[in-house]
Amino acid sequence: MGLYCSDCVEQKSWRPIRDIQGSKNPRWNGGKIELECAVCDSTVERYPSNVTGETTVCSEECRTEWLSEAFAESGHPNWKGGGNGSYGKGWNAVRRKALERDGYECVVCSKSRDEIGRNPDIHHIVPVRSFVESSNRDKTDAHFLGNVVSLCIGCHRKADFGKIPKSELRERIDSARTASSAAL
Predict the structure, then answer these.
(1) In this structure, are residues 145 and 97 in contact, taking their beta carbons and an 8 Å threshold?
(2) Does residue 156 belong to any structural domain of this protein?
(3) What digits encode the pLDDT tens for the residues 2-12?
(4) First to last CA, the chain
(5) Phi-psi region of 24 (alpha: psi -120 to 50; beta: other; left: phi over 0)
(6) Positive or negative CA dihedral for 75, 129, 144, 170?
(7) Total structural domains within the chain
(8) In a domain? residue 85
(9) In a 3-state reduction of DSSP, which class is residue 42?
(10) Phi-psi region of 175 (alpha: psi -120 to 50; beta: other; left: phi over 0)
(11) Are residues 153 and 68 in contact, defined by beta-carbon separation less than 8 angstroms?
(12) Is the pLDDT of residue 84 over 60?
């Protein structure tokens, strides 16, 4: 036994249907807002609930560029202060030998120099700062072929964040050495 007769319930004439679309909805918060892309200054529309943090970008290309700038120097998780000063004696020779050993390509994803748009980065498996912070070592002690590996920008970032284990990088160096000695 209900409050309304079955005919009224069927007709729905007893209950007005509210229009709660858009700005008439009690939860309406203004719709999309316009923001500027942090990289290219183009206009981007986002719902307020999708605006997280302080940086807004319009595309994957702008996101990549922003990451490259934001995670440099003090923005990088391994930043310990100071600048990117000279790596010291022996660095250029070891860098050149590593590029030659690795065939001028990333040893993880195999992107070539042409695909990257420049030579791959040379990554220290044991960071230079570990040698600098040691009481009986110097930064130049970090520069030996068994401690450096060629990586594209993306793989270098992953290695810096610990997403590629040091053991895997060492295995890839061994594979590159075997391949280059077999070619001789």
Answers:
(1) yes
(2) yes
(3) 676 777 667 66
(4) 94
(5) alpha
(6) negative
(7) 1
(8) no
(9) coil
(10) alpha
(11) yes
(12) no
